[in-house]
Every structure is written in C-alpha cells, then in structure tokens.
Predict the 3D structure of the following.
Amino acid sequence: MRQHWEDDGAASAPARGVRTNPVPAYAPLRGWQKRRPATHGFAPWATIFRPSGSPRCPVCSLPPYGRILAQLLLAILLATPLLAERLTLEQALETASKANPELQQARLRALESEAEALVQRAALGPQLSVGASASYQTTNLAGIGVGWAGFPSRVGPYRVFDARPRLTQAVLDLSLLAAWRAAKERTAQARQQAAATGEQTRAAVIDVYLRALAADSRARAGAARVETARALLSQVTDAERAGTSSKLDVARALEQVETQQAALVLARRDRDALVTILKRTVGLEQSAEVELEEVTAAEAESAPQVRPEIRALEATQRALLEERKRAERERWPRLLAFGDFGVVGQDPTHALSTYEVGASLNIPLWTNGRIAGEIKAARLRSEQADRQRRALDLAVSQEEAQARLERDAARDALVHTARATAAA
C-alpha cells in the first residue's frame, strides 16, 4: 500500500524552534506525533506516525534502492508461512502406530475379545447370589395329601419372608468348556488381526511416503524445467530483437514455457494430494504442515517370517473348531451342584433357618433340530475358513513373486542409471 504524506511546504512548515502542535497523549512513542493523513491519496483512512517536526517519512527519505529493499523485506515477512514440521519416515511410522484410527479400532476389538473370554471363563466358576422376598400366599393342603373330613383343603393367606444366599457350580458342562476355549482362540485371532492391521498400516505409510517423495522430486524437476524454458525464451527473445531469430522461434519457446508450467502444476497437485493421503494414514490433521525427508537404503525393513494375517486366520480356524465341539457337546448331559442357607417365616423376627443342598442333571432329548443346525453351521464356517486360508496363501505367493520382480527391476534400473550418469 502506498502512503501519501502531507506536503511540508513553506505554508505548512512550522517555524524553527517552535512547535505549533503539542505531542498528543495517544502518540505511540515519545517524540512521535500523529499527523492528519492526506485526503488526496487512495487511502485517506490510513493513520501515519512520524517524528514531530520531521519534514519527511523515514522510509521515503531512503534512496530508491533502499525503498525497494524495504518493500521486498516486508513482502517476504508477510508471505512467509509458518515453519513446517519435518516428518521423517520413522516418525511417520511411530505416529501411525499411535494415531491411526483403523489400528486403534483393531486394538480395541482385541480388548473386547479378551473381555468376552473372561465372561466365558467366569461361567465355569462358582456363582454366588443373594435373594430376599416377602409375599402373601395360600397353600393347597389337599394337593399335597394333607387333609381329612372337616379340615379345610386350603389355608391362608399368610405372610412369608425368605432371605438366603445361593451358590451354584457347574460340575460337568463340556459345551461350556468348549465355548471358553473358543473365546480364547477368538482373543488370539483379534490380537493377530490387530498385528496384521499394524503391518498393513506400516506398509501403507511407507508406500505413500515414498510416493510423496517421488512426486516431490518430480515437482522440483518440473520447476527446474520451467526455469530452463524461461531462460531459453529469454535467449530467443533477445535473438529475435537482434534479428538472428524469428518470431516463430519465440512462439515455440513460449509454448514450451507454458507446457512445462502446466506440467509443474499437475506435479505439485499430485504431490499435495499424496501428502494429504499420508496425513490421513498417519493420523494427522490436514491443517498440520509437514516437510518430508529423503529416505536412505539403511531404513529398509525385513519382512516378518510369518505374516500376522496368516496367524490370525489360523487362530480363526482353531476357534471355529472349538465352536463345532461346543455345538456337538450340547447333546451331552450337564451336571450342576447347588446349595443355599437362609431364613423363612412370617417376618424376619419370626423366621427359622433352612437350607437346601442338591444337584441337578440335565440331558437334552429333543431340541427340534436346534443342536443339529448349530453343528452344521459350525462345520460350514470351518470350511469357509479353510477356503480363506487357501486364498490367502495364493495372495501371499503372488505378492512375494511381484516383490521379487520389482526388486530385480529396480536393481537393473539403478545399474543403468549409474552407467548413464558416468557416461554423462
């Protein structure tokens, strides 16, 4: 913005040694006074401070090159963005292991499976409960064989108060034991699935990081080509002015500049798009400014011997096997022991102690096909897991073969690039 200062001519200049305008209370610094802005400029609202009695603006009093330098420094200060945080590949992997939403969900699912396994295990242990009840009831004496002529067949209503703890324990329940083992295998599956998600996240971060670096290299190369095209355009323009080149050459050079500029815009777009994908994969906000660093060959990691997704699928197969056993053992008898001790009477003050100890045996005879359906469903799920294992083995084999091909091609390309560099 260009400021217009008042003309300090003879009519407006104060006499030497005389201050016509005292320093106002709102002066920003001592020795500075607020002057009325010029009304003939384009910014009459601008408020300008200058030293009292100073005939000219301090910036305007500079030589021309000094004013240009001051304006350039001001433009740089206003246009300089906030410093971007340097994000190395190791830092990106560490941040993704803590902030990636998919990885966090997988870990939470593993914790949920552990809690469900604890629920199944608790069902195998003793169960203790306390109950208390108060009611009015009648009793049919004739129904239990108590009664004679002239004696009422029903007594009551009368008050009944009952309070006692009750202890139960599953002595023999093989289906419940199989359900607990299946829950443990489900926990192992969830843990391995979380590990597989972590490996997939790491692979995605490395892939996007390297692609972003490659895109940044292409953008820098495009910027260099733009500068080269502009230099060529300048040379052709000078030659055309000197009469040693035609306007057609100038048009071709200008076309080359615009073509390289369009390619540079696309390269920068691709780079910025990959950076946004990297932020989402790592778990950073899109408003965060990051700057990538080059990756050395020493940072390469070796692949694990057994992939976590294979271990997760193996745990799934074991869990499905236990679920099939649980369904089959639903037909087996169940033995339950129980006991309680408490008081019963008309009210707590007139109650007597009673107890009960016993065992119950439950043998399912007819379930209308429920157990057979559960066994069939468990067998089909197990067969599906076997097919998934086959598909996963084929996918792993294909990925390994493709990785070997890409490694060999990259090695050969590096050798030819080194030869070309040496020849140049």
Summary: Residues 1-55 have pLDDT under 50 and may be disordered. Helices lie at 64-79, 89-99, 101-122, 174-242, 247-282, 308-328, 370-423.
